[in-house]
Design brief:
This protein is of the alpha+beta class. It folds into two domains: 188 residues, Metal Transport, Frataxin, Chain A (2-Layer Sandwich), CATH 3.30.920; 91 residues, no CATH class. It is 44% helix and 12% strand. The protein has a five-stranded antiparallel β-sheet, with helices on both faces. The chain has a two-stranded antiparallel ribbon with strand order 6-7. Helix 3 packs across helix 4. It is elongated and about 70 Å long. 38% of the residues are buried.
């Protein structure tokens, strides 16, 4: 089971990293076996997460980890925010953490200022999902390393739980994981780490709730796993005005490169906090040209395709013959 595998990782990592990294059986156990076991924990939960476990890239890491990524936010531990198990191999402690991508912050702000940014955003996360922060531990975590990335993980920790690898309460361990994943999804629904004022300026929404729903909908539309699948199944002709990129714009190439947008049609006004499985492909999407996409978002009801079509006073005109 997952808690047993993570316990093995925490208790054996120090010994194993004294061995060559290349073709390590232990490294394969972490990257492959632990990841598969973690995915099994998601089978009966309403989430579509990417799962990855790591003991380092090319060399042994100071801190091995197992992470859950929502593709709406990130598919990598280098950016965004995500749920992660971080291992302190010296104390044999396993930390469940709602954490942040360190590398992208360092690249933007430098390490010293980046650590300050991570700490400040960790507090913002606590404030935004207070209902969950209150049932977890907001105390700092100790990963037993002052290397650059572990320092970032410690600064980026919002809240979580610590477990001794030699005495894990199985029931609490899995209950904590489910609650933490719910906290992660709620944080996404509430706008993530983006300040409310910035979201309102971006969306033009009048209320906080309206703003959050707009931002969430746009994240769904731009998710890397959404656009290619929608265009493959719905085609690339605008479902508002009928513009055909091939016929009217001379487009050639794969559907994913077509100059059209994917619009999330499923109403978010009924979305409850923490509700997942937010979209079905292709049923909850429409393909629109950029003009129609901008127009539909200016409507009071951004899901009303009939209103969009009724507002259009032209149809694309084929190139006239010379």
């Amino acid at each position: 089971m997952l808690h047993e595998m993570l316990s093995r990782l925490a208790t054996e990592f120090t010994r194993e990293r004294a061995k060559p990294f290349a073709q390590s059986d232990f490294g394969n156990f972490v990257r492959h076996d632990i990841s598969i076991e973690a995915r099994k924990r998601l089978v009966f939960l309403p989430y579509d997460f990417k799962v990855k476990a790591s003991v380092g890239a090319g060399v042994w890491a100071a801190v091995p980890w197992l992470a859950f990524f929502d593709p709406l936010i990130t598919e990598s531990a280098t950016n965004g925010f995500y749920v992660v198990y971080l291992i302190n191999p010296d104390s044999q402690t396993i930390y469940l953490s709602l954490n942040q991508g360190t590398t992208s912050i360092y690249q933007e702000f430098g390490e010293q200022r980046g650590l300050e940014v991570l700490r400040r955003r960790a507090i913002d996360i606590q404030d935004r999902v207070q209902s969950f922060a209150g049932i977890f531990d907001i105390s700092p975590i100790d990963l037993g390393s002052q290397a650059s990335l572990p320092k970032g993980y410690m600064a980026g920790h919002a809240f979580g739980r610590a477990y001794s690898a030699t005495s894990i309460d199985e029931t609490r361990f899995y209950d904590d994981l489910e609650k933490m994943l719910s906290a992660y999804e709620l944080l996404i629904d509430l706008g993530g780490t983006t300040p409310t004022d910035s979201m309102k300026e971006y969306s033009g929404g009048e209320t906080v709730e309206e703003t959050r729903r707009y931002v969430l909908s746009r994240r769904i539309e731009r998710a890397p796993n959404v656009r290619p699948k929608v265009l493959e199944r719905r085609g690339i002709i605008c479902e508002g005005c009928g513009l055909d990129p091939v016929k009217h714009l001379g487009h050639f190439g794969p559907p994913s490169s077509a100059p059209v947008d994917v619009h999330h049609l499923n109403p978010l006004r009924s979305l409850q906090e923490g509700e997942s499985r937010r979209y079905k492909i292709p049923e909850d999407f429409r393909v629109l040209c950029p003009t129609c996409h901008r127009l539909i978002h200016s409507q009071r009801d951004a899901d009303d395709m009939d209103q969009l079509r009724a507002s259009i006073r032209f149809h694309p005109i084929p190139k006239q013959q010379a």
